[in-house]
Amino acid sequence: MASAEIAAEHERILREIESTDTNCIGPTLRSVYDGQEHGLFMDKLEGRIRNHDREIEKMCNHHFQGFVDSITELLKVRGEAQKLKVSKTKERHEQRYIYYPALCTLEQLEQSCLPKAGGYRFCAIMAENIPVLRTHIRDVSMSDLKDFLESIRKHSDKIGETAMKQVGLCVFSAANKQKTITHRNQCQLGGGRVLGQPVQKASSRALVPGAHDLVDFSPVYRCLHIYTVLGSRDTFESYYRKQRRKQARLVLQPHSNMHETLEGYRRYFNQIVGFFVVEDHILHTTQGLVNRAYVEELWEVALSKTIAALRTHSSYCTDPDLILDLKNLIVLFADTLQGYGFPVNQLFDMLLEMRDQYGEILLKKWNLSFRQIIDQDNYSPIPVSTEEEYRRISGQFPFQDPELEKMSFPKKLPFSEFVPKVYSQLKEFIYACLKYSEDLHLSSTEIDDMIRKSTNLLLTRTLSHCLQYAIKKKNVGLAELVQIIINTTHLEMSCHYLEEFISNITNVPPDGVNATKLYGTSTFKDARHSAEEEIYTNLNLKIDQFLQLADYDWMAAQGGGQASDYLSDLIAFLCSTFSVFTHLPGKVAQTACMSACKHLSTSLLQLLLEADVRQVSMGALQQFNVDVKECERFARAGPVPGFQGDTLLLAFIDLRQLLDLFTQWDWSTYLADYGRPTCKYLRVNPHTALALLEKMKDTSRKNNMFAQFRKNERDKQKLIDTVVKQLRNLIAAHQS
User: Where is the Exocyst complex component EXOC6/Sec15 N-terminal domain (predicted)?
Assistant: First the structure.
C-alpha cells in the first residue's frame, strides 16, 4: 500500500477512535493490528495524543478556576443530598438555602461551561444529569413547601393567639388612657395599621410581633422562586392555593362542643385569625402567589361560615356571663382582622342580634333574683338602730324623709328589705346591659336607647310578673299586701333616680326629644293597684269567714241586749287590720275600709234574706238590729282617718232604713212617701221589704206568743196581709 494511502487509513482509524464509544471500538482496533505498518500507526497515535494533551492543558489553564468552582458546588450538592436522608430538622433547614445557588450553578454549567468544554464524554454525562438534578431540586423544594404548609396548619392557633393578644393589649392600654365607653385611642397593629382605620400601603405591613418567630416563611419564597426559574410558577400557585383552601375548610369547621366553654370559641377564632394573618403576609411579601381577589374570596366564605357557626353554637348558651365573654372575644376577633383590612361589619351586625339573646338570658336570670328576694323578704319595715345603718340603706336606695330623719334611734324605715334589694338589682341589670354595648361601635344615643328598652322589658315583663307572683302567692296575708303597697309606692317614687342613673353612665340627657322613657312608674302603679284589689278581696273573704260563724235564732221571742259573738270578733279583727294601714296612702286605707263596710252590710242583708231562712221573728230582727248598731258604732269611730262626717255610716244605710221600718212598723210612712226624694225610707227596696215581710207573716201565724191574745193576733195578721197587698200593688204599679 502506498504511503499516502497508509497515512489516510491511519487518519481514518484515529478519527474513528476519537468518535466511537469505547464499547464499539474493538473492530477498529482489530483493523489496526491486522493491518501493515503497525509501528507507524502507533507513532501517529502517540503524536495525536500529545496534541490532545496540549489542547486539554491549554483549555484547562483557561477555565481552571471556574471549572473547579463548578465541581466544588456539585460536590456540595451531592454532600448535602446525602445529609438530607439522615439529618434532623435543623440540618435540613440549613441545607435548603443551597437550592437556588445550585440551580444557578447548573444553569452556568449548561449555558456556559459545558459548551466551551467541547464534546467530551464527561461533559455529555454532566449535561444529561442536569435535568435530573433540576427535578430533584424541584421535588425537594416541594417537600419543603409541604412541610411549611403542615407547619402553618399546626401553628395557626398560636399565630392567631399572638395576633389577638397584641390587639387586646393595645385596646387595654388605650382604655386605661381614656375612660370612656365609646372612644378608644388609635392603636397600631403590626406594620403601622390602625384599628378601625383604612389599611396602609403594603410596604408598611408586617406580621404581628412574635408571630413570624413561630413559622419560617423562607421555604415558600424559595419554592416559588425555584418554580419560577423552572417555568412552573402557575403549577406552584395552583397547588398552594388548592392546599390552603383545604386547610381553610378544616379551620372553619367548629368542634361540636365549642359552645360549652369560652376556650372552645377562643381556639376557633385563633385558628381563623392565624390562617388569615399568614395569607395576608404571603399576599404582601410575594409577587402574586396570592392576590387580593383570592384572599377576599376566602374571607367572604370564612365570614359566612363563621357567622353561621356562631349563631348555631351561641343559641345553646344560657349563661349571660359566657355570652358577654363571647361578645368581647368576637369584638377582639373582628378588630384583629379589621386591622389586616378584612371587612367585619357583618360580625358587628351579628353581635347586635346576639344582644337580644343576651337580653332574654338576663331577664331569666333577674327573674330568679327577684323571686329569691320576694321569697326571702319578711314584709316588715326595716329597723335601724344607728346612723351608720341608716346611711348604708340610704346609699343603696335613694330615700329621703325629713320627718323620719328627725326621729331618734332606734327607728323603722317604712319599706322592707325588698325595696333596696330590688333597686340594687335594677342598677345591676343596667350595668349588665352597658357591658354588652361597649366596643360595638355604637353612639351614646344608641347605647342609651338600648339600655332603656332592655330596662323597660325588665320592668314591664319580669319585675311585673314577679310582683304579681308576690301578690297572688299562697298564704299571703293582709299585712304582707299592705307592705307590698308601701314597697311599690317607694319604688315608684325612685324611678326618676333610675332615669338619672342611666343618663349619667351614657352621657345622654333623659329629657331628649327621642329619649325612651322608663315604664317603672306604670309598672309599680299597676302592681300597687293589683295589691289593693287583693286587699279588698282578702278583707271580704275574711268577713265571709266570720259570717259563716253566725248562728241566729230566727224564731227568737225577743232579742238580746248585746252584739253576737261572731260580730264582736269580726269588728275586733277589722280594728286590728286597719291599724296596720297607717303607712298606706290615705285613699287606699279609706277605700279598703269603705269596701269592707259595704261588703259587710251587703252580706248581712243577704244573710237575712237567705232562702233557707223561711221564718223571721220580731225577736230575731231585734237581735239583728243590735248587731247592725255595733257595725255602725265601728263606722262612727273612724277606724281609718280621712273620712268626713258620717261618710262611712252610709255603707250601712240600706240595712238601717230596712230595720227601722220593721222595728218601728212604720209602713204608713213608707207607703205614703215611696218614690219621693225626701222619703224617710228611700233606700228600702219594696221587693226586699216584701220578702222579709213574707217571712214574718208565716211566723205570726205560728207564734204561740199570740195564742192568748187572739184578737191582737188576728189584727196583726190582717195588718201584715194588708201591707203585703199594698207592697205587691206598689211593685206592680212601678213595673208597669
Answer: 44-86, 98-164
Q: Let me know if 731 is exposed, middle or buried by CB neighbors in 10 A (0-12, 13-18, 19+).
A: middle
- For residue 206, count CB atoms less than 10 angstroms from its CB and return exposed for 0-12, middle for 13-18, buried for 19 or more: middle
Side chain identity, residue 322: L
Longest CA span, the chain: 202
Residues 397-422, buried b or exposed e (16+ Cβ, 10 A)? bbbeeeeeeeeeeeeebbbbbbbbbb
Q: Of 415, 437, 430, 558, whose CA–CA distance to 491 is shortest? A: 415
Q: Please give the pLDDT value at position 604.
A: 95
Q: 645: alpha, beta or left, given left = phi > 0 and alpha = psi -120 to 50?
A: left
Compute CA 129 distance to the chain's CA centroid, rounded to the nearest angstrom. 67
Q: How far apart are CA 113 and CA 111, in angstroms?
A: 7
For 614-659, the pLDDT digits (tens) are: 898 889 999 999 999 999 999 998 888 888 888 899 999 999 999 9
Say how far apart CA 273 and CA 176 lie, in whole Å: 26
Q: Name the more confident of 720 and 313.
A: 313
Cβ(508)–Cβ(445) below 8 Å: yes
Model-wide pTM > 0.90? no
Residues listed for the chain: 736
CA distance 326 to 330: 6
- Segment 207-229, tens digit of pLDDT: 444 456 677 888 888 888 888 88
- The amino acid that residue 710 corresponds to is R
Q: For residue 263, with 0-12 CB atoms within 10 Å meaning exposed, 13-18 middle and 19 or more buried, which class applies?
A: exposed
The candidate with the shortest Cα–Cα distance to 276, out of 164, 197, 144, is: 164
Distances (CA, A) of 146 to 139, 141, 149, 151, 459: 10, 9, 5, 8, 61
Q: Which of 735, 722, 650 is nearest to 690 (CA)?
A: 722
Q: CA of 278: how far to CAs of 146, 208, 274, 282, in Å?
A: 15, 10, 6, 6
Q: Helix, strand, or coil here: 384?
A: strand
What are the residues whose beta carbons fall under 8 Å from the beta carbon of 557, sequence distance 6 or more?
617, 619, 705
Alpha carbon distances (Å) from 700 to 169, 418, 598, 719, 720: 102, 62, 32, 11, 9
Residue 290 is classified by DSSP as S
| Phi-psi category of residue 207: left, alpha or beta, with phi > 0 → left and psi -120 to 50 → alpha | beta
Q: 320 with 256: CB under 8 angstroms?
A: no
Return d(Cα 477, Cα 500) in angstroms, integer. 36
Cα angle, residue 519 at apex, residues 516 and 525 outer, rounded to 5°: 160
Query: Up-side HSE of residue 498: CA atoms within 13 Å toward CB?
Result: 28
Give the distance, in angstroms, between the CA of residue 319 and the centroid of all CA atoms in the same chain: 8
| Residue 162: how many other CB atoms lie within 10 Å | 22
For residue 270, give the nearest of 341, 352, 164 by alpha carbon.
164
CA–CA separation, 415 and 483 (whole Å)? 7
Grid cell 319604688 — which residue? Answer: 491
Output phi, psi for 561, to 5 deg.
-95, -5
Sign of CA dihedral 532, 536, 537, 543: positive
The sign one gets for the Cα dihedral 678, 684, 687, 689 is: negative
